[in-house]
Amino acid sequence: MVTIDIIGGGVAGLALAAGLDPHRFEVRIHERAPERHDLGTVYGLWPHALRSLHDLGLADPVRECARPATGVRVSTSTGRRLGGGTAPADSWLIQRPDLLAVLGRAKPAAVQSFDGAVEDPTTLTGDLVVGADGVHSVTRAAAWGCPGRRTGAMALRGVVNGDIDEFAPGDPWLQEFWGRGSLFGISANTRGVTNWFASMPEFRATKSEVLAWAQHHFAQFPAPVQAVLERVDPERVLLNSIMETPTLTRYVRRRFVLVGDAAHAMSPNMGRGACEALVDGATLAQCLSDFPLDVALREYQRRRWGRSQAVRAASGVVRRIALNWP
Ligand SMILES: Cc1cc2nc3c(=O)[nH]c(=O)nc-3n(C[C@H](O)[C@H](O)[C@H](O)COP(=O)(O)OP(=O)(O)OC[C@H]3O[C@@H](n4cnc5c(N)ncnc54)[C@H](O)[C@@H]3O)c2cc1C
Question: Where are the alpha helices (DSSP H) in 56-186?
Fold first, then answer.
């Protein structure tokens, strides 16, 4: 029986655990924050992520608690249209806790869960140690020696009460407004709330100072932005530095393998990080199921490295264009 330690029970770690046959793999998941506190912000799931969910037998349970994504529009801060279009068929919006709940329910009962942070991954005894521990991965730090890096941008985001139609009647599910070195986005959500996010160059300030800055800075942006800002509840706001994983040429090193943000954390501007994390988890499970361990890891590297690095690079380009819009 192959033993596998998975560090991190987020999107990638749970997708991997859901895809491993408990008769062939002894799996242990280590999660530092099993009681999740989340605002209920939404992920866009694109068709390739749905295909991975389908392979795990989870596409329908996800669709049941998600909402179809329809279209995207990008405009300037004065409302002039820059681009947009219809979302591809089988694109969905789902709250992170709902996605994690579906993945968690699919985890075989034999998987052992350990609550608490792993400080040193080299002390774990698994034949394979999977770093599914996000952008600040201790696995990457221990085996690759490279920490995540700041992009110089930050994101303020949250949810407000009310469906998207109350803020932007008849408009697409996602709207972004670019200009004045910043962007503001509004997207549909489920459960009667609407998602919003703002991004700007990073400066040192508290969350409430950044929120006050944003309320002033975006005051001239189009009406839907004003409607959202009027309803913002400071208790339902998150502030993050936007971090990226430095370019890695390999996701496998000795008995360590990286999945999700640990391998390729990217700017959120293409809404793809969780999708790539899902595909990583499902692909690694498939490779481990189909091949002996050494071949499986080579195959995982071959299937996932190029694609995920391309999306990471493209997301960085979109961030730079958006935040440099005049
Ligand atoms: C502003 C913003 C908006 C985004 N919007 C989208 C979007 O629309 N669509 C999309 O696809 N993606 C989006 N993303 C990206 C998405 O959130 C991530 O890419 C995704 O969560 C990565 O999944 P993961 O499993 O790799 O990491 P995570 O989901 O971060 O999970 C890592 C897990 O590891 C645990 N952990 C960490 N360290 C340890 C340790 N030492 N010991 C034990 N456990 C540990 C953590 O508690 C966590 O549960 C967005 C990100 C941001 C910042």
Answer: 59-64, 96-106, 138-143
